[in-house]
Amino acid sequence: MEKNELYIGLDIGTTKIVAMIGIVNEYEKLKIIGVGKSKSLGVHRGVVNNISQTIQSIQGAIHEAENNSNEKIDKVVVGIAGQHIRSLQHSDYITRENPDEVINNDDIDKLIDQVYKLVMLPGEEIIHVLPQDFKVDGQSEIKEPIGMYGSRLEANFHIVVGQVSSIRNIGKCIKSSGLEMGDITLEPLASSDAVLSFEEKDAGVALIDIGGGTTDVAIFKDGIIKHTAVIPFGGNVITEDIKEGCSIIGNQAEQLKIKFGSAWPGENKDSDIVSIPGIRGRDPKEISLKTLSKIINARVVEIIEQAYLEIKNYGHEDSKKKLIAGIVLTGGGSQLRHLKQLVEYITGMDTRIGYPGEHLSGDSNEFNPIYSTAVGLLMKAIENNSENLTNDISNSTGNDLVNQERKTILAKWGEGFKKFIDNVDNTYDN
């Protein structure tokens, strides 16, 4: 891998758009050399609702990152999320024409392509197909079928589905900003790469990424993604509740939440008061911190209960599906004081805050959970680049070939997705 090769991640969120530029240093750690942030004006709950405003916000973040790094950005790895994303489980099989030959890459491709042809609801498109485990001639729990003999190849799949129009709009914004789309990944998957260890994914863990407009849930077990969900509210609804409950403007509500907010109302005394400046010469407004934390608590409990419902839907209460590593919180909303304690109280599961720092070099400053998705997107770009290099230069042993082929399958969805955006875009333009 070239040490000075640039990797760029673009996190299009509801509250902010982050462009992050990184390189791999001599210790194989990710070094951040430039970050650009801009207020996200055209995105609501993870979905683009104003093309021109989104383009301006993207260009603002890109421009700032370029100035900070003195580098030119042309190709980006993009994260997608939003309330239109849903996931489902599906099983499918193929009957092989030549059972006397070992199962190879083409057989798995054929099976995955078959899943992509599933009929979805009107306006929906399959954007991500992830094999969970395989069966060969009825033999179950096979992680890697390549190299085995068999006539019937079966697999369980985790399928992620999204709205065609929402996906197309993101592609349009990227292109109109003068950028090329390198790879695309689901934001909860990117965040998980940045903050979760392999041990956690193997033991079973639920990642809850609390953003501004949405809360993303990704559940892993046995090292495999088992469940994803997007809850259509996040930190912004807390700010909105503070604004309404305390009769103050949005900016003041956001500052109150950050500086004095707590998810646990019992911490504050009735006498704890904060004074807010009045608008245009009006008298200052006094707000009780106890009242503030009660407002925050009510909404946070709702978010956590929704996330916990997704964990239950996955089947956490089943002993075989138990999430031993508990819950990892990340995203801007995870910085709320006493949130960890509240989550543990509601769910009864071990909880920690996830920071992207372990993958970054010591001189990087982006250790904040708000950058988890952006760091994950960079890691995805590095991973895909490494796989391409491996595929270019490795033709040694059969085992090596099997492994690299398998990686390629898991990465192929990004390429397919880019083609899909191009196709729909061309159709739309014509």
What is the element layout, followed by pairings?
Layout: E1 7-12, E2 16-24, E3 30-39, E4 43-44, E5 47-48, H1 51-69, E6 75-80, E7 86-95, H2 105-116, E8 124-136, E9 139-142, E10 152-163, H3 164-176, E11 180-186, H4 187-195, H5 198-203, E12 205-210, E13 215-221, E14 224-231, H6 235-246, H7 250-260, E15 273-276, E16 285-288, H8 289-314, E17 327-330, H9 339-347, E18 351-353, H10 372-393, H11 398-429
Parallel strand pairs: 1-6, 6-11, 12-17, 17-18
Antiparallel strand pairs: 1-2, 2-3, 4-5, 7-10, 8-9, 8-10, 12-13, 13-14, 15-16
Helix pairs in contact: 1-3, 3-11, 4-10, 6-7, 6-8, 8-9, 10-11
**Main β-sheet, in a few words?**
5 strands, mixed
From the alpha carbons, calculate the radius of gyration and give it in angstroms.
Answer: 23 Å
> Quick one: overall form?
globular
Give the strand order of the largest sheet, numbering strands 1, 2, ... along the chain. 3-2-1-6-11
* Uncertain runs: 393-411
- Output the structural class: alpha+beta
Supply the number of helical segments. Answer: 11
CATH class categorisation of the domain at 198-353? Alpha Beta
Mean pLDDT: 84
CATH homologous superfamily classification of the domain at 198-353: ATPase, nucleotide binding domain
End-to-end distance = 40 Å
Work out the helicity level. 25-40%
CATH topology of the domain at 198-353: Nucleotidyltransferase, domain 5
How much of the sequence lies in strands comes to: 25-35%
Secondary-structure element pattern, one letter each: EEEEEHEEHEEEHEHHEEEHHEEHEHEHH
CATH architecture tag of the domain at 198-353 = 2-Layer Sandwich
